[in-house]
Amino acid sequence: MPADPIHDGLPCMLMRGGTSKGAFFLAEDVPADPEVRDELMLRIMGSPDPTQIDGIGGAHPLTSKVAVVSASTEPDVDLDYLFLQVAVDAPQVSDRQTCGNLLAAVGPFALERGLISASGDRATVRIRLVNTGDVATASFAVCDGRPDYDGDAQIDGVPGTACPIDLRVAGSGPLLPTGNAADTVAGHRVTLVDNGMPVVLMDAVDFGVAGTESPAELEENAALRAEVEKVRRATGPLFGLGDVTGQSVPKMFLLSPPRGEGAITTRAFIPHRVHTAIGVLMAASVAAGIRIPGAVGADLARLGEGRDTVLEHPAGAFTARVEVGQDAEGVWRAASTSLRTARQLFDGRVFARPHL
């Protein structure tokens, strides 16, 4: 990396991946020491500050994200993708989760940077999600050896259309971390699910809301936020995550019956703000969880016979294709497929603020 990231800057590409936006770096361009790296990312994004006015963060968790990408040394894997969630108004950087939305942009970024090559009209890339150990397969269109960002795919939460990117993720662990379809935690019946993202499924009625409120309305409900956070902290050890007080996982989902043509209505605390749409791996976990008999949300959901599960969210709907079943030992496992889009926003050098 440059000797002076304040004056020389770092090579950086800003990309939209799904309904998120983040700063993408090659691993060789950022410090190898996690503490030094994280402190640098805070200065680059402009945290801690609710406006992130002195950095490139967008003053929201969905736009205060970082992807660090490198060629993988793992067999049958092309790329390693490390995700960092940079807190907006606190000096915190978390690597305890991954991000399925930014995952959509990892393949195009790697092609732009020359980590991979593509000679035909389509690229298929195997990506190791460093945060979780899962492996994803991404497939996207290529034109003259570069990503083709144009196309007719539309996803709710993003204006216009773009080239479709197909993502398939197979979880490496059991779908139900506690082995139970439902548990009682902090006085509430909940279901813990991990299909690439640790989530907690909760019945909105049990928390005194309809589950159709806007993100702003839910965030303004201080009593609700406190109760959801109490449950979140109590589930941390059950996931094997320990004390999650300062972490961005698990994600907390209020579920209610579908209002449109979907399977279920969702509102996601991520964990302190409410998602304006839904994350890719969050959707994969919710879609898998509500297919398990006895799980929270299973009795609220309207499921078809196919694998597609349409999740209604504040900005529209998201379709997650999940395969759910029990192995020979009776353990529930799942894999998911989803469609996302991504786009390169700018490429250049980013300059860190001198100090926090």
Radius of gyration: 20 Å
The ordered string of helix (H) and strand (E) elements is EEHEEEHEEEEEEEHHEEHEEEE
* Global geometry: globular
User: What kind of oligomer do you see?
Assistant: single chain
User: How would a crystallographer describe the biggest sheet?
Assistant: 18 strands, mixed
State the end-to-end distance.
20 Å
The total count of strands amounts to 18
- The residue-averaged pLDDT reads 95
What is the helical fraction, as a range of percent? Answer: 10-25%
Indicate the low-confidence ranges by residue numbers: none
Percentage of residues in DSSP E strands: 25-35%
Structural class: alpha+beta
Number of helices: 5
Describe the overall structure.
With 356 residues, the chain is α+β, with helices and mostly antiparallel strands. It has helices spanning 34-45, 100-113, 215-220, 222-239, 280-289; strands at 10-17, 20-26, 65-71, 79-86, 93-94, 122-129, 135-143, 146-147, 165-170, 183-185, 188-194, 198-203, 251-256, 264-269, 308-313, 316-326, 332-340, 342-350. The radius of gyration is 20 Å and the shape is globular. The two termini are 20 Å apart. 45% of the residues are buried.
